[in-house]
Amino acid sequence: MAESVVLDPVDLHLLRLLQNDARATYRDLAAQVGVAPSTCLDRVARLRRAGIILGHQLRLDPAKLGRGLEALLSVQVRPHRRELVGPFVERIRALPESRTVFHLTGPDDYLVHVAVADMTDLQRLVLDGFTAHREVARVETRLIFQQWDCGPLLPPEPEGITPTAKSG
Question: pTM of the full predicted structure?
Answer without folding.
Answer: 0.81
